[in-house]
Amino acid sequence: MLWGFKHLDIKTASITLKNLTEREIGDIKVPPDLTVKNLPDSMKTPHIIVKNITMAYGDLVIQQNLDFTVNKGDIFIIMGGSGCGKSTLLRHLVGLQKPAKGDIIYNVLSKNSDLEQNRQKEINFWNTSAEEQRLLMKNFGILYQSGALWSSMTLAENIALPLEAYTDLSSSQIMELASLKLALVGLAGFEGYYPSEISGGMRKRAGLARAMALDPDFLFFDEPSAGLDPVSARLLDDLILELRQSFGSTIVVVTHELASMFAIGTNSVFLDPVTKTMIAHGDPKYLLESSKDERVINFLTRGEGKQIV
């Protein structure tokens, strides 16, 4: 159950985009006793592969030699000190900024028209056609730090935008689906409200509902809990966990909130602003327990410089 909305369970929601369009999502099914977090490596499926990335603005190098894998179903945390390039890396991942060097590869399902079955397909985002990039980006859902809702549109109209642009659904179906997405984040009954009429936490949830509009396989969140009080931030963490569990989306999160990192993170990369490269990669809790790097431990313990188990 989500946000006190007692009569709606994500798994049994009455209408989904798949029901309305008969689109095959093809999520990998995981037995109930095996969460993504404790799957053996042999059962994990790489979803995003970052190979030897260099990020730069002209001659100014932000990060270099970045190599890591985001597995399907991960809640992947991009962490590091202020100014290390976390949001810049996110911009590279979602196709808003081209890396100075390296590859970003997405492992997606592609339908074979002859065999009528789904096949895994690797797409090197920055080394493919503009049309294939556009099709891949339709499978991205993004929650911006500020929510980035259109102030002149109601919440329902904001959620309806991607549905109007990328589906052939009727107006009534779109509005029904928009209502469902808002209900999933605890905003049932707020369809007619404008962003200025709701709180900051509610705007974040509305932004999340819009990110989920097309049932994307990839969700990208930029500082989702920034500006929220501790209770609202915890509720948002719980919502993110339930969305991952129910829909199987791969989620990439930029955050500096330690509580969120440990509560939701299953994998991570640590960017260092001094050496301008990654210095750690793995489950945040594992890094806290096992890392010998003083920079990582200081960050994960708020500068106390000791390991907390």
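(ticket continues) Second input and output from the same batch:
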Amino acid sequence: MALKKKKAEPKDNNPSGVQSISRAIGLLRAVAQHNQSGARLSQLAREVELHVATARRVLQSLAAEGLITYDPVGKLYHLGLELYRLGNQAHQYTITTRFRESLEAIAQATQDTVFLLIRSGNDAVCVDMVEGEYPIRTMLITVGFRRPLGVGAGSLALITFDPDEDLDQVLRENQPRFAQFEQLNLERIKGMAAEARERGYVHSDALFHKDAVSVGVPVFDQAGRVICAITVSAIRSRMDKARRELIYELVRKHTSPEIIGLCLDGDPEPSED
């Protein structure tokens, strides 16, 4: 009886493919190191120890995907916008993961809707929210919604506590966009920012709905940089000054370094046994 020839199992590994990925990552890192001034092909190839022709092929593929850009005049490579977009998505994931429990705790304590916002260029983006259980809710924005920085409590809280020159620059660049909001102009936004610096949070009253009031609280990392903002919104009858102050303290309590895991630039340092 003839023996059946055993079928060879397909190989799962792809050495050439893995090598190409390693080369691409190495070149991305090299471009990143020189991103401010840009880097030439020969310099990048030398740093990652690749033949110039090989480095050129990999760089062309990365450029085609938008991960890097090539300036044909200066013959320089820089990081591309697609890489920044991917990085921004990773940043959003880190933020939402770190703050989810805090949002839930604030929503449970206040019974009002709580929003988490981060900065994206000159915009504020809502990356998470938790609805409160109070029967009358104020849903002014949803997850994924974008607004110009300076428009709204959380959006303004993201930049109010920056140095004066940084705040002024953002407001100046966004000023043409403020015209679409009837209740806002540059002077009113600056006034709200000045008041917020005194009290610690932004108070937004009837900007988008006559009965909606919001409190926007900045969240700082250990270096004193604003990493995100949390907004609590409710109807006006539930937002007198005493309750706004209570909400401010509540948000600060639930976003303290001990709660969110210290500085978001890295994981919390392990405790010593």
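Agent notes: The beta strands are 68-71, 76-79, 113-120, 123-130, 146-148, 202-205, 212-220, 226-235. The longest strand covers residues 226-235. Closing as not reproducible unless the customer responds.
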